Amino acid sequence: MREHRTTALLLAPAMTIFAVLFVVPLAYFFVISFWRKVLFAMRPDFSFANYGKVFDQHWSTLLFTLGLALIVAALTTVFGFGYAYLVRFKAGRWGLPLLFVAMITLFGGYLMKIYSWMTILGIKGVLNSALLGLGIIDEPLSWLFYNPGAVVVTLINFLLPFTILPIYASMRGITDIELEAARDLGAGSWRSFSDIVVPRSQTGIMAGFTLAFLLAAGDYLTPQLVGGKVNMIGVQIVAQFGGIFDWPMGAAMSFVMLGSSFAVVFVAVSLIAQWRPR
Amino acid sequence: MNRRSPTLWRGIAALYVIFLLSPLVLVVLFAFTSRAQSAFPIEAFSLLWWGTMLSDPKFDPALGNSLVISGWVGLIATVVGTMAALGLTRLDARRARLVTAILCLPLMLPPLVLGVTLLTFYSWAHVPMGRQTVIMSQLLFTVPFVVLVVYARLRNFDFRVVESARDLGASPLRAFFTVTLPIIRSTVVGAALIAISLSVDDFIITYFTISGGFTLPTFVFSMIRTALTPEANAVGTLILTMTLGATFVALWLTRYRG
Fold first, then answer.
1. pLDDT given for residue B3 in this prediction
2. Is the residue at B127 inside a domain?
3. Which 3-state string (H, E, C) describes chain B?
4. CATH number for B194
5. Is the residue at B114 inside a domain?
6. What ipTM was predicted for this assembly?
7. Closest-approach residue (CA) in chain A for B106
8. Domain contains B27
9. What range does the domain containing B205 cover?
10. A101 touching B, CB under 8 A?
11. Does B175 reside within a domain?
C-alpha cells in the first residue's frame, strides 16, 4: 500500500499539470464553442450555430488547409524516411552527425526558420540577390514568395525533424542480420526494402506523418508571414482572438480543425498500415 | 552494406543538411553584415545590428523575461518530470506506456490550439496573465520531454544499488539524493537543458499567454511583422545560440537518441 502511495505521489505533480492546464481548459473551450458572442461578451448557450457558421463560411479555407497539410505531411514523411534510411543504412560513421543535425533543428528555431525563409524567398531576398549577382536571372523572381509553394517549403523545412526521428527510431530495430538473411534467401534489394525495411518502420512512419499533419494543419504563422494571401484555418482562428473577438467562434473553428485533422490522419494511417510484406 | 554509389548517397545527404541548416546559418551570417537588407553581395561584416539591438529599449526587458521564464520552466519541468519518470519505473510496462502516452497528449495538439485554450482558461479563472502564466503554460510541453528523456535513462538503471542503500538504512529520499541522482545526473541536466531550449524558443504559446511585454521571440515577431530589419537577425542569432547551444550540450550529456 505504501509502495502505491509513493508511486502516486511521484506522478501527482505531472498529472496535476496535465489535468489543470490541459484537460480543464480544453473542456471549458469545448463548452464555450456552443456559446454565443453578444457584443464583446460571451453568453452561455447551447447552440450549434458556430459550427454551422464554420462549415458555411470557412469550408473552402478548411479544405484548402487540409489539402495543403496533406501535401506537406506526405512530402515530409517521404523525405524524412529518406533521411532516416540514409542515417541507418548508408551513412556509416556519418550517421551520428546526421542524426545530431536532425535533433538540433527539432528543438530550436521555429520562428527564426520562418523569418529566415522570408528573407530567403523575398523579392529583394537572399535567393533573388544571389541569382542576380551570379547573372542567372535578369530580374528578381516574384513567384518565389507569398504563395502556397513558399508555405509548403517552409513547413517541410520546419517539420522534417519531426518525421526523421520517429522513423529512425523504428529503423534502429532492424538488424543487419535480418537483411543479410533475406539476401541469402534470394531477396533482391527492392524485395528486402519493401518486405523488411518499410513494414518495420511503419510505426515511425505513422507517428511522423501524424505529427507533421497536425502541426501543419494547425499552423498560422507560416501562412501569415510567407504565404501572403494564403488563407489557412489557423489564421482565421487567430483572427477570432484578435480583432474579431469572437471566442466561441474561435473555439468551434478549433474543434472543427482538430476533428477533421484527426479524421484525415486516421484514414492516412490506415492506408499506411496496408503496406504489408507479400 | 550497399557500396554501389557512395557518392550519390553523400550528395543526397549534403543536400538534406544544406536544406535543414541553411535557414539557420543565414540568420547568423546576416547578423554580422552592415546592409539594411538580408541579401547578397555581402559588402562588409560589422556589428552594427548588435549595437542597434543593445540600444533598443525593448531588448533588455525581453532578454530578462526570456531568462526568468526559461529558468523557472527548466527548474520546475525538471523536478516534476524526473519525479514522474521515477514513478513510471514503479509501474508495470503496460501502465507505464499508458501514463507516458497521456502525459504526451499536449504535444499532439497544434501550439495554436493550446495557446488559445489557455488564454480563454486564464481569463475565465481570473488568473492574472504575465510571466507566471507563460511559465505555467510552457510546462505543458516541456514536462513530457523531460519524462521521455529521464525515463529512457531509468529503464536501464540498475535499481539494486538503490535497494542496497535502503537495506543499509538510507531513507528513500536520502537514497535518491546520494545514489540515484548522482548516477543519472548528466541525463537530468540534459533534460533540463532541453526544457530550457524549448522554453526560450517558444513563440506561439508565449504570444497568447503573456498579455503584455516581450520575450526574445515575441520581440523578434514585433520586428518582422511590419518591415524586415536586420536587427531581427541579431536577436535571432542570440535565440539560436541559446536554444541550439543548450540542445547540443544536452544531446552530448544524455546520449539520448530519439
1. 52
2. yes
3. CCCCCHHHHHHHHHHHHHHHHHHHHHHHHHHCECCCCCCCCCCCECCHHHHHHHHCCCHHHHHHHHHHHHHHHHHHHHHHHHHHHHHHHCCCHHHHHHHHHHHHHHHHCCHHHHHHHHHHHHHHCCCCCCHHHHHHHHHHHHHHHHHHHHHHHHCCCCCHHHHHHHHCCCCHHHHHHHHHHHHHHHHHHHHHHHHHHHHHHCCHHHHHHCCCCCCHHHHHHHHHCCCCCCHHHHHHHHHHHHHHHHHHHHHHHHCCCC
4. 1.10.3720.10
5. yes
6. 0.90
7. A22
8. no
9. 49-254
10. yes
11. yes
Residue that has been written with the C-alpha cell 515530409 in this structure: A76
Task: Please choose, from the candidates A229, A231, A251, the residue with its C-alpha nearest in 3D space to the C-alpha of residue A240.
Answer: A251
Question: Coil, helix or strand for A232?
Answer: coil
Nearest CB partner across the interface for A14, out of B84, B116, B119? B84
Chain A environment of B29 (Cβ under 8 Å): none
CA distance A154 to chain B (A): 10
Cβ contact, residue pair A109, B19, below 8 Å: no
d(CA A229, CA A147): 7
All 3 cell numbers of residue A223?
501562412
Going by C-alpha positions, the residue among B62, B81, B74, B106 that lies closest to residue B206 is: B62
Q: Which residues contact B83 (CB under 8 A, 6 or more apart)?
A: A10, A11, A13, A14
From the list B16, B197, B190, the residue with the least C-alpha distance to A97 is B16
Q: How many residues are listed for chain B in this entry?
A: 258
Of B9, B40, B112, the CB nearest to A220: B112
- Say how far apart CA A54 and CA A233 lie, in whole Å: 10
> What cell numbers appear for A7 in the block?
508511486
DSSP letter at A143 equals G
Q: Return the residue of A nearest to B228 by Cα.
A: A119
* Phi (first) and psi of residue B72, to 5 degrees: -65, -45
Cβ pair A103:B17 closer than 8 A: no
**Cβ of A254 under 8 Å from any chain B Cβ?**
yes
* Cβ separation B124–A28 shorter than 8 A: yes
Tell me the nearest-neighbour CA distance from B157 into chain A, angstroms.
Answer: 17
Nearest CA distance, B88 vs chain A (angstrom): 8
Closest residue of chain B to A32, computed from CA coordinates:
B120
Look at chain B and report how many structural domains it folds into.
1
d(CA B213, CA B63): 11
Structural domains of chain A ordered from first start: 51-273 (1.10.3720.10)
> Does residue A44 belong to the interface with chain B, where contact is any CB pair within 8 Å?
no
- Cα separation, A76 vs A90, whole angstroms: 20
The tally of CA atoms less than 13 A away on the side-chain side of residue B67 is: 7
* Residue B246 and residue B145 in contact, taking contact as beta carbons nearer than 8 Å: no
Tell me the pLDDT tens digit for each residue of B109-128: 999 999 999 999 999 999 99
Block means of pLDDT (10 residues each) for chain A, 278 residues, are: 82 95 95 85 84 90 96 97 92 86 86 91 84 85 85 96 93 86 84 85 93 94 88 92 86 95 95 83
Residues of A in contact with B8 (CB under 8 A): none
